[in-house]
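Predict the assembly for these two chains.
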Amino acid sequence: MPRFILRRAYFATLTILLVSIVVYGVFSILPFDPAALTCGQKCTPAIVEANRVKLGFDKPLWQQYWLFLSGIFLGRTYGAGSAEFTCPAPSFGYSFNENMCVTDMLAEALPVTINLAIGAFVIWITVGVGLGLLAAKFRGRYPDTISSVFVLLGTSLPTFVTGLFFLIYVTIKWKIVPLSLEGFTPITESPVKYLQYFILPWLTLAILYAAFYTRFTRATVLETLGEDYIRTARAKGLSERVVLLKHTMRAALAPITTSAGLDIAGLIGGAIITESIFNLAGLGRMTLQAVYEFDLSVVVATTILAATVVITMNLIVDIAYGYLDPRVRMK
Amino acid sequence: MVSKLKSANASAAGQIISRSPRQIAWRRFRRNKVGMVSAGISIVVLMLSLFAPVVCKILGINPDELNLDLIDSSGIPTLPNGGISREHPLGLTPGIGRDLLANLLYGSRISFLVAFLTTGLAIFIGLIVGIVGGYFRGRIDDYLGRFTDFLLAFPAFFMIVALSEPMVARIQETGIAQGNSARVIFLIFFLSFFGWPGFSRLVRSQVLSLRERDFVTAAQAMGASRKRIIFKELMPNLWAPVIVVVSLSLPGYLAAEAVFSFLGIGIQPPATTWGILLDNARRFVTVYPNFFLITAGSLVLVVLAFNLVGDALRDALDPRSER
């Protein structure tokens, strides 16, 4: 087992490194002069050149990448003399549009996105697994029918349609959830404002994912219910409750955990639509903003970060699978 | 094989007519009422979109005509219900007073174009990579598998969003296409670039199990060429899963195109797509909710119909998925 974990961790690190090289490379060969985008309307060639040197864009590409990479571990200092400034480690670059170290921007946006992802996850896993279990238990009867209608609707409603619907009707027209004007408030400060900020985005994401998890749970549970050991458990006279919740769920848990891990990772890197509809100050909206403004250092940083989260989660899920499913461990 | 044996017995008895697997699947599909209705809706929508110019002529609506006399100074249609009338069956778009139905029909063409070409391209690459990996196995499969995993590690949506502006500029620079054509090319290319790994995984796993089956061994024993085994033995057995995946991913790409237009990085106005219409609808929704409901409703209806057809196809083509 430790050998397996080490090997996987090694490959994951390698993949992250490779992804960062590709992302950095792709964005650097694009037909844009990053230095030219660093100064506003009163731009002269001299300022552009000065900025180019200051940000290190005058160096060859591999040196730029090396500076970027070492910046993550050692921090990075830009400019020289009186105009010198430092982004302490871990530094992901410097955004000229915002006049901020990218790390500080990430530190502001990340909590929003993580809260969004975790909250949505809690809702969708409860609803999805619960509904899936019910549908499997009452297969062919009305809970199954209800859940299949839910699955159908949930998988067919694009998030931006659900999101817009919530925003337009629940918030603006019916005023059930008032518009959050103060932005992100940690739950420790004001649970009400926290909920007001997050509840609709959570629901928007959760409806889609809950539908997928209902279908997935139902299929997995039905498959497991056909196994011999379930018959054994029933023959032993165990109650249906124990059979369903202990014996069946234990087997269904591993695949569900796997996809849940990957979906959370995906959300941290990709809740762009939900964040921009509800105007949440998270990672997705920040990236979109940066794309509109050609703020390449931010785009590179968030893309690499998103990929890192996905790869790391993949690794964790792989390792967890071994613990959750003894059949995998034995191989 | 089993069905052939059965039909041999049956014809000996002289009672039961033999059916090919395709006929069996078609019978199963026909019996699925929801599937048939959805298939009907899907075909009608596709036809309406394909023949949008003809349909608009017949209905006497024009997507580009600005009905400025029918909207007030703030851009809202003056007639009730958003200007729904005989001349304008679904009303007018706010702001400039174009006919909504005509715009939905014309807009769907770009959306369908992107969805179909993306799915086609992705499945084409996925088939090649999946068959090569699954059939030849060994080192080739290792490399292809690792590359697939590598691509799947990229946050695809992020990459497409981030690359859109610079890549479109580059496409325009090379002179292949300008304006919205460049954007359509960008969307199709990158959506399928990040989309094929999923298909290739599916195809590979199918090929891996198929190539161990007796009929492939028999073909090999008879000295069939590699080409024959791949095209005559493996490919026909791949159609069923491929058709199902295609019909289930089409609505996904349809929605994806709308999302990108909606976020302002896909197709740009004055062209129309469902995403652009929805983006407009958002701005006018408090004063003109019909616009949003009709636009979002038509997108959801089409996605729903496509999904249902996909489900029905899976039930018809894969007997194991009986519920």
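Chain B has a mean pLDDT of 82. The longest helix of chain B spans residues 100-136.
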